[in-house]
Amino acid sequence: MASVAPAQVSPAGENQPVRAQARRGRPVLRFVLRRVLAGIGTLFVASVLIFLATNALPGNVAEAVLGKSATPQATAYLEDKLGLDEPLVTRYVDWLGGVFQGDLGESATELAGGAEKAPVADLIGTPLRNSVVLAVCTMVLLIPLALLLGTIAAVAAGRGADYAISYGSLVLGSLPEFVLGTFLILIFFSNLGWLPPVALVPPGQSPVADPEALILPVATLLGVALAFSARQVRAGVIEALRQDYVMMARLNGIRERRVLWRYALRNSLAPTVQTFALSLQYLFGGIIVVEALFAYPGIGELLVKAVAARDVTLVQGVTLVLAALYITINIVADLIVVFLVPKLRTGLR
Questions:
Q1: How do the domains of the chain map onto residue ranges?
Q2: Which of 54, 183, 205, 258 has the fewest CB neighbours in a 10 Å radius?
Q3: Against a cut of 0.70, is the pTM above it?
Q4: Residues 154-205: tens digit of each pLDDT
């Protein structure tokens, strides 16, 4: 019997798995690039809208900022420092060019107060850090609580625990932040005297150094965000529990706890991640009200003061930073979902 020579593998054949893996990775890379480019485009549109909105108000900005001290010399000086005597298009191009270099302009109120220089980026730094601390503390509590309550409500759908969690979430979600915060102040300060009604954080100091300053603001944000997140987690888990693969797992005798954690929760990750991304976006919006209510020295309180003083440059800088945070959260959430769900990766082009 004639012997058969072993098959020879060409160098090209040896590289086929590597090339196949590279081809599989390219759609993901293209998706990442598309999302980043779309985010940059969205931020550019947002910058145009922000600039137009802040410059559409009638009246002279320099005179409004200076108030009673608006002499012709002081007004002319402030207009020159802020470039208010330039055409609108030129001012936008100059502002956008500065943004690309990390320069958000100079604060009108600080300049009117006699400061030689008042970079908006420096004014935003510490309040932004304080707001991030507040949002992170809220998310650290929100994620496990929403997963726990949403899962309990889904497993006990139609029973007492489900009704208690669902209706409790509905009540919390119907309360605006300032109403819930006011109730918490009445209970924990006016009646019990346990917690301070305002977040007294010394300038330059981290709010983490005084945890009591964080409790009421975090509790207010957590109450409103938890109402939405827990309901969304409940809906996602209920939808996953109705799938055929969960029924087959139960028919095969797999324990209910394993069915819940391995099949239901894992396959509800995609909507859950989007839910938490929306909650994080809400936090940076709801923070404005909560910070104003508790006098918390964050980006929201800074924005309220800037609007009240009609500090156009500071308002532009703060709103652009908030828009960038919103867009970044969206992009990161989309990428996490794609990497968590293999089916979505295979459908990328």
A1: 24-112, 125-346
A2: 258
A3: yes
A4: 888 888 888 898 888 888 888 888 888 888 889 988 888 888 888 777 776 7
CATH number of 125-346: 1.10.3720.10
3-state secondary structure the chain: CCCCCCCCCCHHHHCHHHHHHHHHHHHHHHHHHHHHHHHHHHHHHHHHHHHHHHCCCCCCHHHHHHHHHCCHHHHHHHHHHHCCCCCHHHHHHHHHHHHHCCCCCECHHHHHCCCCCCEHHHHHHHHHHHHHHHHHHHHHHHHHHHHHHHHHHHHCCCCHHHHHHHHHHHHHHCCCHHHHHHHHHHHHHHHCCCCCCCCCCCCCCCHHHCCHHHHHHHHHHHHHHHHHHHHHHHHHHHHHHCCHHHHHHHHCCCCHHHHHHHHHHHHCHHHHHHHHHHHHHHHHHHHHHHHHHHCCCCHHHHHHHHHHCCCHHHHHHHHHHHHHHHHHHHHHHHHHHHHHCHHHHHCCC
